[in-house]
């Protein structure tokens, strides 16, 4: 099947250049010469266009598509992610050259009124149409465009659908990307963003305290009321994730404002195309404080840890950063000591972090690990594409 | 060790997740310039209305939740009410992020095509 795909494409490109004024180019020359038409031919045969799309799942309880994680990820691939032009202004979708990010709230089966009537929160699986989610994600993965509903977070209604064309990288973000087993099977890579209660509280205070109507009590009450459903339906997904980013309060100093963070990147071992990041010596246990003679850090400093652990019965490697960066050279120094970060050039992590220095988390492990996960996803994508190209070439040699 | 690597001014000052628009002292990633780097922002009327609507909804839904939960804290109605508060709070924060930090007004494309509609009048603080 893969072999015939390659042949079809080549025939198409032959047709496209068979004008009388052009000189005849042989089959082999089409593939290897450097003319404009040839470049188009090789591009077509190597791209994932006619083939499946790579699907990434991100579980997060912080709204959709605007999260800084998504923006860092799309930035790694180049280009800014923007809402679809000319569509519903309340669309949650983000599109860049290589990636499309959709919000799984779009698969709510009950709108705000419906949920109120039935007495279910948005966290409850009963409020979501997993059959449709599975159907559509499967279709996009197989290269078929779909008309996806839009859940409007302003009005609380389900708006008319928007067309989603299969991108190279399809990211599904929301509360339940790994809840349904069928959808889980479609994911090439999955991430869970695990925010500890103290940090969640601190972030929501920062988010909401300026709002009329909110107070410490209301913010607290909202978190408490949602906790049972969150614990029952959302939290258990983390056992399925290939990577978990755990955000905790710092252990370096007493800090109850959630400003200094301890962030753990928990990476599953044995995941295809995914080689966990490590410090110094893979598989060993390391504790590292980079600040010292070569590097002066400002208060409260930076502390790293790395080592093998077990997570819900799986072998994992954990890379941890506690503290924050205050200067460029701290970031470069740290980057130069990490291994398996899948950068294409020295300083790429630092460059990406600088690009988004105004995003939250740019000075701590959240930004660092989100950026690194973005690079790992790029690496995963390139490996998947390379493996698809290799298969037909192998067959033609035979 | 001196920061001899002098790239763009590097300001890693930690700032709250969704800071008010006036704290625009952090480096931008070079997208289209804001209309003056001050707290006043040019946005479309339709977007301003959406923002105000969300503000009102937050207030209203918090009051509703307090009332419903006052009757029975463990009821489904109570948790749904607070879930609604969370939903609109997040929607408001997302909108603020778009307008004030990302310069991506949701009505941008629509208003470029239809500048004469009422929604697309420029609103200046």
Automatic annotation (TrEMBL), chain A:
Keywords from the UniProt entry: ATP-binding, Calvin cycle, Chloroplast, Disulfide bond, Kinase, Nucleotide-binding, Photosynthesis, Plastid, Transferase, Transit peptide
Q: What is its EC number?
A: 2.7.1.19
Q: Which SUPFAM superfamilies does this entry report, sorted A to Z?
A: P-loop containing nucleoside triphosphate hydrolases (SSF52540)
**Which terms under GO biological process does the entry name?**
reductive pentose-phosphate cycle
**UniProt-listed InterPro entries:** P-loop_NTPase, PRK, PRK/URK
Cross-referenced Pfam families, in alphabetical order? PRK
Query: Where found in the cell?
Result: Plastid, Chloroplast
Nucleus as a keyword? Answer: no
Which ranges carry the Phosphoribulokinase/uridine kinase domain?
Answer: 55-253
Q: Which domain of life is it from?
A: Eukaryota
Query: Which pathway does it operate in?
Result: Carbohydrate biosynthesis; Calvin cycle
Task: Extract one GO cellular component term from the record.
Answer: chloroplast
Work out whether the entry's keyword set contains ATP-binding: yes
Uppermost EC category: transferase
**Major place of localization?**
plastid
List the transmembrane segments. none
> What family does the database annotate?
Belongs to the phosphoribulokinase family.
Q: What is this protein called?
A: Phosphoribulokinase
TrEMBL record, chain B:
Looking up Pfam families in the UniProt record yields: CP12
Q: List the disulfide bonds.
A: 69-78, 111-120
What is one term from the GO cellular component aspect held by the record?
A: chloroplast
What superkingdom heads the lineage? Eukaryota
Task: Give the start-end ranges of region Disordered.
Answer: 1-38
Key words, A-Z: Disulfide bond
For biological process, the GO terms are: negative regulation of reductive pentose-phosphate cycle
Amino-acid biosynthesis in keyword set: no
Record's signal peptide: none
Which stretches make up the CP12 domain? Answer: 54-125
Q: Per its record, how is this protein called by name?
A: Calvin cycle protein CP12-3, chloroplastic
Q: What lineage is this protein's organism placed in?
A: Eukaryota, Viridiplantae, Streptophyta, Embryophyta, Tracheophyta
């Amino acid at each position: 099947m893969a072999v015939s795909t390659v042949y079809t494409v080549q025939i198409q490109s032959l047709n496209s250049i068979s004008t009388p004024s052009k000189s005849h180019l042989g089959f082999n020359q089409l593939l290897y010469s450097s003319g404009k038409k040839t470049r188009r031919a090789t591009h077509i045969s190597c791209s994932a266009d006619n083939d499946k799309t790579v699907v990434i799942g991100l579980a997060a309880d912080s709204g959709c598509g605007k999260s800084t994680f998504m923006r860092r990820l799309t930035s790694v691939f180049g280009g800014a992610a923007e809402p679809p032009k000319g569509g519903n202004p309340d669309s949650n979708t983000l599109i860049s050259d290589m990636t499309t990010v959709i919000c799984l709230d779009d698969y709510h089966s009950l709108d705000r009124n419906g949920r109120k009537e039935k007495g279910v929160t948005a966290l409850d699986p009963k409020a979501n149409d997993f059959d449709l989610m599975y159907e559509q994600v499967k279709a996009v993965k197989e290269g078929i465009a779909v008309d996806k509903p839009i859940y409007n977070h302003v009005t609380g209604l389900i708006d008319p659908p928007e067309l989603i064309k299969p991108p190279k990288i399809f990211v599904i973000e929301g509360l339940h990307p790994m809840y349904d087993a069928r959808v889980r099977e479609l994911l090439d890579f999955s991430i869970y963003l695990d925010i500890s209660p103290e940090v969640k509280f601190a972030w929501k205070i920062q988010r909401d305290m300026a709002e009329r109507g909110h107070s410490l009590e209301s913010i607290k009450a909202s978190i408490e009321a949602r906790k049972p459903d969150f614990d029952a339906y959302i939290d258990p997904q983390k056992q399925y994730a290939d990577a978990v980013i755990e955000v905790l309060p710092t252990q370096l100093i007493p800090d109850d404002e959630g400003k200094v963070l301890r962030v753990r990147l928990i990476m599953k071992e044995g995941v295809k195309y995914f080689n966990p990041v490590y410090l110094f010596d893979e598989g060993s246990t390391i504790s590292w404080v980079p600040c010292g003679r070569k590097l002066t850090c400002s208060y409260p400093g930076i502390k790293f840890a790395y080592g093998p652990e077990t997570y819900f019965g799986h072998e994992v490697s954990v890379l941890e950063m506690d503290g924050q960066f205050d200067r460029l050279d701290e970031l470069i120094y740290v980057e130069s000591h990490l291994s398996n970060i899948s950068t294409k050039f020295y300083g790429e992590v630092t460059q990406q972090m600088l690009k988004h220095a105004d995003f939250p988390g740019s000075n701590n492990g959240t930004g660092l690990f989100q950026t690194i996960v973005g690079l790992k996803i790029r690496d995963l994508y390139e490996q998947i594409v390379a493996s698809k190209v290799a298969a037909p070439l192998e067959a033609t040699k035979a | 060790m001196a920061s001899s690597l002098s790239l763009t001014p590097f300001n890693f000052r930690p700032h709250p997740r969704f800071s008010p628009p006036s704290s625009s002292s952090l480096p931008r990633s070079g997208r289209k310039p804001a209309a003056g780097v001050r707290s006043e922002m040019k946005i479309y009327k339709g977007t301003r209305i959406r923002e105000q609507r969300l503000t009102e909804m937050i207030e209203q839904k918090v009051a509703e939740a307090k009332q419903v939960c006052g009757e029975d804290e463990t009821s489904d109605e109570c948790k749904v009410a607070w879930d609604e508060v969370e939903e609109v709070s997040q929607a408001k924060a997302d909108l603020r992020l778009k307008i004030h930090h990302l310069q991506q007004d949701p009505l941008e494309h629509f208003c470029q095509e239809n500048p004469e509609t009422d929604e697309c009048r420029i609103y200046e603080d």
